[in-house]
Amino acid sequence: MTEVINYVSKVASDLGLNEWTKKLGQQHFNVPNEPTTLCGMPMLGNNYARVYSDTDKTPCPKCEEALVLRADSMYSSALPASDAQEWWG
Ligand SMILES: [Zn+2]
Fold first, then answer.
1. Residue-wise pLDDT tens digits, 54-76
2. What pTM, to 2 d.p., does this model score?
3. How far, in Å, is the centroid of ligand 1 from the Cα of 68?
4. Can you list the alpha helix ranges (DSSP code H) found in 1-89?
5. Distance 57 CA to ligand 1 centre (A)
């Protein structure tokens, strides 16, 4: 699971997204300067992104899905098909 979490964090930074982690480690992502996370949650309360270590975080499935969709379109337009295949493989 650590690999998956690191992968999500890497893709988020490639996409220029901010991580927004709630208390207890639920990990969301948001577009800078937008008032909600990718899953539409208002960003109230504290951000624990730098408080918890990655292994203590649980990525929000909706944010992860939205993030993968964004990554998919970004990488497929930025890379030749063969490279994209390799990246995802
Ligand atoms: Zn979320």
1. 899 999 999 999 998 999 888 77
2. 0.76
3. 13
4. 2-14, 61-78, 81-88
5. 12
